[in-house]
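Example record for the data management plan.
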Amino acid sequence: MTVDDVTSLDAVRRYFSEKTGFVRAKWSGNPASEDLLKEFGATIRCIPYEQSGTAGRCVLTGESATTDAIFAKAYEGAPRNGSTNAQTPPGSKTVFWIYPRIFLSVLCRGPSTP
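Corresponding structural encoding:
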């Protein structure tokens, strides 16, 4: 599920502490602002090729922004490939993405070239 009504860092923090999915929100384009997401394990997953063309405020910094970005969180505990019997070495963590990478690839890919 992708939500697009998240408009502040506090709202992003709350969303990822209570739910799973994707957040589509404005981003200023400042790479340094991505460090704010580390606190709760989220990252910018992609910048969609098709942008809304609207202006707003960066969900991370509050600065003026025109770029739409997709934010998501990685979750620990299940095998990344969906297998239920994967072996994990002692002391290591298995991280999986909430949706298969192919979904993100299709979501974020630009137009095909012949």
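Summary line stored alongside the record: The domain at 2-108 is CATH 3.30.110.30 (Translation Initiation Factor IF3).
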